[in-house]
Amino acid sequence: MIIDTINNLCKYVGMNPLFADVVAFLDENDLNTLGAGKHFIKDKDLFVNIQEAKGRSQEEAVLETHVKMIDIQIPLDGEETFGYTPLCDLPPFEYNAEKDITKYGDIQAQTYVTVKPGQMAIFFPQDGHAPCITDKAGIRKAIFKVKA
Length: 148
Prior knowledge:
Layout: E1 2-5, H1 19-28, E2 37-42, E3 46-54, E4 64-65, E5 69-75, E6 80-86, E7 95-96, E8 101-103, E9 111-115, E10 119-123, E11 127-133, E12 138-147
Antiparallel strand pairs: 1-10, 2-3, 3-12, 4-8, 5-10, 5-12, 6-9, 6-11, 7-8
């Protein structure tokens, strides 16, 4: 997991060749003006999903992991808190290959971090994360899905 400002994403391009395409997309587009839904950048290998999600409490938030994709999550209209537990500390649960997601039921995260607009959280396949924790009714966010 990486927590940093969006402006520093360029420092991580050596970790995945598609990160450079995310940086270019951010330079050329205003995430706040994109409509809700998926915007494909490099077919299914790289896209951004502009999501308007229901806010959740820490108890309601569900830990998840992905096998094929890396998430770069960016809150757009307010703070978002993420729960975190490393995959190695999570018990086996059923993986949904079609949706590339494993959800871990009512297991609570080990720790929490809050990310503000202008910042990002990058979750790799080894990072269990519980998104959308906020005291607001909903949150608008961008989720870049990057092929791992």
